[in-house]
Amino acid sequence: MIRAGIVGGTGYTGVELLRLLALHGGVEVVAITSRAEAGRRVDDLFPNLRGYYELVFAEPEVSLLANCDVVFFATPHNVAMQLVPELLAAGTRVVDLSADYRIRDASVWSQWYGEPHSSPQLLEQAVYGLPEVNRDSIREAQLVACPGCYPTAIQLGWIPLLARGLVAPAELIASAASGASGAGRQAKIDNLLSEVGGSFKAYGVSGHRHLPEIEQGLQDVAGGPVAVTFVPHLLPIVRGIHATLFGRLLEDDTDLQALFEDYYRDEPFVEVLPPGMFPQTRTVKGANRCQLSVMVPQQRDTVVVMSVIDNLVKGASGQAVQNMNIMFGLPETQGLELIGLLP
Ligand SMILES: NC(=O)C1=CN([C@@H]2O[C@H](COP(=O)(O)OP(=O)(O)OC[C@H]3O[C@@H](n4cnc5c(N)ncnc54)[C@H](OP(=O)(O)O)[C@@H]3O)[C@@H](O)[C@H]2O)C=CC1
Ligand SMILES: CC(=O)N[C@@H](CCC(=O)OP(=O)(O)O)C(=O)O
């Protein structure tokens, strides 16, 4: 059994990791942290886990975590980067769900996250954990930086087109909407039911911190500069991201449906829907799955890709478990063969 630790076990991605790992079969969670809930039983805070765990939340200390084979960081940014150097030195492998190691350039990271990076020496060795792009490097990685939720949905939608040079790389537009759990479990007025419910709004229009991550990932695939106009929105639902992507086609004779189907044919967690079927957030709710549709409305030169994920599963904890499976040589789908919850 792989001995796993979770730092930040009281947040939404932390409890989602617990849900997925409870039935994984190859992992025992031996350490879980929360500063606010230290000393409290996990199944007292999360009764959905009763019968699956006897764990008690502990303070986040390296001495506890270094006994694990793998540690998941389900913490806000600027937490993993304080503890990871010591954990790596102790031989522990790390899957970081936060943004701390996603951006290779420390000065770009600081510009968007507003503080200096405290372990920039690890940025080069961190592997960006999008298995559909980096599977081989993830296998050997000691430190995996899991992609953000919007970046997962958006990159998976653009990649087939950029890899084949079929869209204008400097004119990409992504309009994406997320459920409120994307903002985490901390109390914030903006996330109250009476603020979010029955309404729909854009935010971060002048610049969202996921933009440099999206552009970096797409540039790697395109092999050159890429510019994205990215507008996130807040949906009055709990889970789910729907991204609608627009691009100017550079060729008009490619069968885009066939291209997408071929590109993702062997991917266990990305599905291209048949022509005329469009993805919905509810279909992937609770599942480690990205569903995509591609079309060219009115046969003009604008391609539209629609991409949905559950922000907490393929957008965070499910992708983290997928990365762990790859790192430890387990079947990639172990613990992740989940069907979306309808309704
Ligand atoms: N929610 C989502 O859909 C997604 C989130 N992510 C990323 O995953 C990470 C976790 O997100 P989410 O679960 O939503 O966050 P939450 O705010 O819901 O939870 C944060 C957790 O981190 C712990 N924590 C906070 N500060 C510290 C600290 N200084 N040291 C140690 N632990 C700390 C908290 O516990 P305590 O304060 O008690 O220690 C809590 O358990 C974030 O970086 C987020 O951006 C990524 C993709 C999607
Ligand atoms: C709805 C909502 O507020 N979403 C969050 C996305 C947060 C997230 O998960 O960020 P990382 O993936 O970078 O960790 C936001 O826009 O800030």
Automatic annotation (TrEMBL):
GO terms for molecular function: N-acetyl-gamma-glutamyl-phosphate reductase activity; NAD binding; NADP+ binding. It is an enzyme of class 1 (oxidoreductase). Keywords: Amino-acid biosynthesis, Arginine biosynthesis, Cytoplasm, NADP, Oxidoreductase. The active site is at C149. It is found in: Cytoplasm. GO terms for biological process: L-arginine biosynthetic process. Belongs to the NAGSA dehydrogenase family. Type 1 subfamily. Catalyzes the NADPH-dependent reduction of N-acetyl-5-glutamyl phosphate to yield N-acetyl-L-glutamate 5-semialdehyde. HAMAP family: ArgC_type1. This is N-acetyl-gamma-glutamyl-phosphate reductase. It comes from Kineobactrum sediminis. The gene is argC.
